[in-house]
Design goal:
Layout lengths: L6 H21 L8 H13 L11 H15 L8 E6 L14 E6 L6 H11 L14 E4 L2 E5 L8
Antiparallel strand pairs: 1-2, 3-4
């Protein structure tokens, strides 16, 4: 039998996630031509896989900028095309996106078995330190490669 958490822990975790979502949404407006409810749904889904964290190392403007950049990367994606963006944080060019001495790698692709495992293994092979791993997964509705909305139950998504 799996260990259970007291209800108060779940409630506190859910409330922390809601607070963080509100802070990120306040720091980052919806991209042009994306409605506020769709943007809120996207940001909520993006942060959901790490809802038990307070994200203390990343201020809401940083998280908001990272989510917005990832969304912009994948907003238009032809079928079966892989998109990759790498941003480097530099001490002489401070950025709200990536802390100095760090790199942010964002990928938009069809689901690939072992993609994350393969990347982590390559990081280790190169003796690079992986301090944080984000792995949001979305099923989306696209029209001619352009994002329309997140898929719902019964939708045919990519």
């Amino acid at each position: 039998m799996a260990p259970t958490r007291p209800e108060s822990v779940w409630t506190n975790t859910q409330e922390a996630a809601r607070r963080q979502l509100r802070r990120v949404l306040a720091a980052q407006e919806a991209p042009p031509q994306i409605s506020a409810p769709i943007w809120e749904s996207f940001v909520s889904g993006y942060l959901a896989h790490r809802a038990d964290l307070e994200h203390a190392a990343f201020a809401p403007p940083t998280l908001g900028a990272q989510v917005a950049r990832h969304f912009a990367l994948g907003r238009v994606r032809p079928a079966q095309e892989d998109l990759v963006d790498i941003s480097f944080g530099q001490a002489d060019h401070p950025s709200a996106l990536v802390p100095p001495g760090s790199a942010l790698i964002q990928i938009v692709t069809d689901d690939r078995q072992f993609l994350v495992d393969t990347l982590v293994m390559e990081f280790r092979r190169q003796n690079w330190t992986l301090s944080r791993l984000e792995h949001p997964q979305f099923h989306v509705i696209r029209h001619q490669g352009e994002f329309q909305r997140l898929a719902g139950a019964g939708d045919r998504a990519e």
